[in-house]
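Form 7-S
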Amino acid sequence: MNTKNKIYMTHFDYNRLKTMVLDYKKRNITNNNLKDLLGEMERAQKVDSHSIPPNYVTMNSVIELKNLEELEFQEFRLVFPEDANTEENKISVLAPIGTAVLGYKTGDVIHWKVPGGENQFQITKIKYQPEANGDFHL
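Output:
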């Protein structure tokens, strides 16, 4: 996990993610990445949805990510678990890579543990950020 970079999260995303986590705990749903997500949520600087810079990854952002180990790019939308669909390139915030990118900005290199070890990823582009497009309800 990369803890060097400062990360930002909107109050809106934080509150929805906190509700999701509490719901998972209440229903005794376990997810190995839940602890990592909670750690990222707590260390993030919380900001108003109207003031988050457009180059930061928020929930429902569409981002382009470069795997620095394999030099390959992938594009996906960061979503809540119930909306995840790999065929539509919708990756859950509870997937290791989903948790890894939340709150980071374009250009950041993220060192993150994935099932096969540790990889380095760079956020190369944010193709869509809800807040930057006035979609504050997403």
